[in-house]
Amino acid sequence: MNPPVGRRGIAFAFFTKIRGTVTKEKRQFINPLKTPLPRKGSDRRLLILSAAEEIFSAKGYTEASIADIAQAVGIQESILYRHFKGKEDVLFSIIEERLKEGLALLDRDLQGLNEPKSQLRKMMWGNLWYQEAYSAYSKLLFFECRRLNTFYASPAFTLIQKYLGRLTAILEWGVRSGVFRKDLPVPLMQEMVMGLLDTINIGFQVVGEVGHPLDDFEDAANLIELVIAEKAPSEDEKGDKSRAILRAAEKVFAKKEFQKAKMTDIARLAGVGDGTLYEYFENKERLLYAIPEGRFEAYYRELSGIFDPRAAHEKLKRTVKYFFAVFLSDRDFFRLFVRNLYLNQGFYRSEGYQNFKKFFNLLEETVKEGKAGGVVRSEVNPRIFRNLLIGTLCWMATRWFAERKTTETGMMKQADFVADLMVEAVTV
Fold it and tell me: For residue 422, which of 228, 265, 248 has the smallest C-alpha distance?
């Protein structure tokens, strides 16, 4: 039996067909209610939006008409046009009303959470909950609005920017407090979080990978924490003064002629005393030859790993980088995929998606192999790892295409950084 609702509750009474409670929290999903039609005022506007949301969701934005909406509400089209400029205005207004409520819920949820990691987890949880609670809205936002250029100049998009601003504030707080990595740009962290959430939602809405988005919450939140959390310094990083000296010597020798370089300059750059430097390297010549000794040993290990079938760590890194490289090597297809396929419901019902899925299954299998070999952390979910890669790639690409100033070299450099970051996060 549906709970009673007054006119003030009409605004959100209709929101989506719900599948049942998905969490232990007491946010209940409610079914659409049949309510008397208000004769005038803002309630009528909201009833128009309620009808439009269901019609757009059922028929698709392109196929639905203003006449369909007016008929569903029981009014003349001319009355509808008193409230909205046209069909697109109705669509964007649905999203705007939803986002107002979503931001209010988010601000309420974040109250009393006094550290950034808890706030980030709660924000991710709320995002996944909202996508199912209001799945009709979610589909309209993903598969209709975000494909329309005019959406990005609408008041609704301004609210999305406010939402992203909340996420940015949490991430910046985490960086300042030493909880999140200082070497990872906050915009990139944001792209990874939102890209993962988007791809989980697509998997729920159209692919059917999960019964509820929140089924993936723990795995998603844990993976994001592995990627962006500040790492405790390793024993090597804390104690290997030799490496610091070698790095400093490279810089000094490269900048000055070997004969003119001074051991004092190297010690100062390495952050050690002169006496400490001589404990490691008896003279300047020994230090010079120690540089290629370490470099070529590292290169040898790296190259040997590439051809060693047992090197699961290197295989995972090569695989992740290959997925980035495939898209970046064909800019036209990459742009087509991000703009016309990633947020296109039809794509996920096509033969093309089956091949896409088969292609990305190779990444999942590589992660599974790594887990079996003890190289990848046991708690990592291969499908969520795949979703993080896809989502991050698409969000990064959206920024690149919007800015129109990132060079191909710059894209590849950023992609390599993300690939290394992801592999480092999940390997033991």
Answer: 228
Contact (CB, 8 A) for 195 and 388: yes
pLDDT > 70: percent of the chain: 84
Any idea which fold 312-426 has?
Tetracycline Repressor; domain 2 (1.10.357)
Amino acid found at 126: G
How many CA atoms lie within 13 Å of 227's alpha carbon, on the beta-carbon side?
30
Crossing angle of helices 66-73 and 87-110, in 10° steps, is: 70
> May I ask the CATH architecture of the domain 235-306?
Orthogonal Bundle (1.10)
pLDDT tens profile 349-402: 988 899 899 999 999 999 998 998 888 999 999 999 999 999 999 999 888 888
Length, in residues, of the chain: 428
- Whether residue 24 is predicted with pLDDT greater than 50 in this model: the reply is no
What's 376's DSSP letter?
A: B
7-228 fold: Tetracycline Repressor; domain 2 (1.10.357)
Pair 366, 319: CB distance under 8 Å: yes
Domain boundaries, the chain: 7-228, 235-306, 312-426
Q: What is the mean pLDDT of the chain?
A: 83
